[in-house]
């Protein structure tokens, strides 16, 4: 399975929806709280040019926002 990570903040509704989706579909993920982890925040911005969350990395692909269809598509591809 591809590695999955999510750059998020504790109060982000879409971040929580994405994490709920991962849990419901038994997808293991690593979470980075960019509200408190400035190094990870910089990493997220460097990778995507985005300052909004969530930023979800599936393998080498970035998904900005909770785009459930795109996430499912990336998780399904090998």
Describe the protein in words.
It is a single chain. By secondary structure, the chain is an alpha+beta fold. The chain has a single domain (4-76), classed as 3-Layer(aba) Sandwich (Glutaredoxin), CATH 3.40.30. Helices cover 41% and strands 22% of the residues. The protein is built from three helices and four strands. The protein has a four-stranded mixed beta sheet, sandwiched between helices. The chain is globular, with a radius of gyration of 11 Å. The termini are close together.
Descriptive terms for the model:
78 residues; 41% helix; Glutaredoxin; four-stranded mixed β-sheet; alpha+beta; single chain
CATH class category:
Alpha Beta
- Compute the number of helices: 3
Proportion of residues in β-strands: 15-25%
CATH architecture: 3-Layer(aba) Sandwich
Q: Return the string of H and E elements.
A: EHEHEEH
CATH topology: Glutaredoxin
- Most strands sheet: 4 strands, mixed
The residue-averaged pLDDT reads: 95
DSSP, total strands: 4
The percent of residues in helical segments reads: 40-55%
Multimer state: single chain
Blueprint of the fold:
Layout lengths: L3 E5 L4 H12 L5 E4 L4 H11 L6 E4 L2 E4 L3 H9 L2
Parallel strand pairs: 1-2
Antiparallel strand pairs: 1-3, 3-4
Task: Please summarize what this structure is.
This protein is an alpha+beta fold and 78 residues long.
């Amino acid at each position: 399975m591809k590695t999955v990570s999510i750059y998020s903040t504790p109060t982000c509704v879409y971040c929580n929806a994405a994490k709920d989706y991962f849990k419901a579909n038994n997808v293991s993920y690593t979470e980075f709280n960019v509200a408190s982890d400035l190094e990870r925040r910089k990493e997220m911005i460097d990778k995507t040019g985005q300052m909004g969350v969530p930023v979800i990395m599936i393998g080498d692909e970035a998904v900005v926002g909770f785009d459930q269809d795109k996430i499912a598509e990336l998780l399904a591809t090998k």
